[in-house]
Amino acid sequence: MKRKFTVDRALRTRQLVCCAILSALSVVLLLIGGVSGILDLTALVIAGLCVAFAVIEIDYRWAWLVWAVTAVLSLIVLPTKEIAVMYLLGGMYPIAKSSFEQFYPLFSWIFKLSMFNSLFLLFILIAQNVLGLSGMGYEFNAVTILIGNGVFLLYDFALTVFITFYLVRLRRRIHLPKLK
Q1: Which candidate, 90, 94, 62, 88, places its Cα nearest to that of 76?
Q2: Three-point CA angle 129, 79, 144, nearest 5°
Q3: Helix, strand, coil shares of the chain as percentages rounded to 5?
Q4: Nearest CA among 61, 66, 83 for reference residue 127
């Protein structure tokens, strides 16, 4: 019985360390994206990949921890709060995506698009009213909705391609310690 406790403790320690590394990597990526001003959306996508990696390799609960720690630290550390708020609202999408894709595809897309449009509207409201970015292209109109949904569909497709590539090609070549 004592052996089980030691193995369980070692596994949890590895999971916690992996989450800490993924969170630190995400914060650094968001910092680079926020400081550069050009790579902000790229940094958001790669930080989302860190959350997707946590979902695949560890567990949903630990992926939520990666997202939460990254969101809080980015709100504290990043000089531009715009990218931190984007991550706070959208960084959890890889977790939601894996949950939504267990449904029938039509319902999956309804859930995904509903989540995106709700969070998109919330981001625009926060950008205008809290961050004071009104008049800088943050308006919720038909053009913004269409462009936003188009970008979201590309992001969802790219995330699916990355996850598939990782599971089919990379995972067996990278010999990670057992995290589940």
Answers
A1: 88
A2: 45
A3: 80, 0, 20
A4: 83
Q: One-letter amino acid identity for 99?
A: S
Asked if 89 and 68 touch (Cβ cutoff 8 Å), the reply is no
Place of tokens 């267990």: 102
**Nearest Cα residue to 96 out of 72, 75, 66, 116:** 116
CA separation for the pair 58, 86 (Å, rounded): 24
List phi, psi (to 5°) of 56: -70, -50
**Local confidence pLDDT in tens for the 180 residues of the chain:** 555 556 688 888 989 999 999 999 999 999 999 998 888 889 999 999 999 999 999 989 999 999 999 999 999 999 988 899 999 999 999 999 999 999 999 999 999 999 999 999 999 888 888 887 766 566 778 888 999 999 999 999 999 999 999 999 998 888 777 777
Q: Pick from 178, 142, 172, 174: which is nearest to 57 by CA?
A: 178
Burial class (CB in 10 A: 0-12, 13-18, 19+), 111: middle
